[in-house]
Hints:
The protein has four helices and seven strands; from the N terminus they run βαβαββαβαββ. The chain is an alpha/beta fold. It has a single domain, classed as Rossmann fold. β6 (about 135-140) and β7 (about 145) form a beta hairpin. α1 packs parallel to α2 and α3 (about 90-100) runs parallel beside α4. The radius of gyration is 14 Å and the shape is globular.
Amino acid sequence: MKGLFAVRKLGFTGTRNGMSPTQRAWIASYIQENLPDKAAHGDCIGADADFHELLREFAPNCEIHIWPSTFEKMRAFCEGDVMYEPGRALERDKYIVKFSTHFVGCPPTDYEIQRSGSWATLRMARNQLNKKLLKELHWIGPTGPAIPGDWRQHPDYVPW
Length: 160
């Protein structure tokens, strides 16, 4: 085992614009240091596809679960080990968050915005963290930094 410890179930959300170099480097490092047994994403073009590629490269034994959207125009059509029926965006995002013991998000901005699927999913994950249903939550903005756990506890936190 390369990593420090294994993550049982890693959930992911990200922007359809794809990961920034900072996000990609952080996720690659996180996967290598915390080898997930299972991972889940929503099969969207952009960051979900990037995440899938990084999992296959750095955690080839990870079982990938995919909850795709019914909006086929935005699908990446990644091949997962477990495929679920397509669902509406926020509905399937709830399944991904509930599936997870650890969660990582790569939103399109360094600050929370409304009308962003990634930020909506991160709010769901934050709610699960606050209820102690997630062990760990990270978000990595396009320029960083990665803030572990409940980012409201970070000294650089600015209220949304």
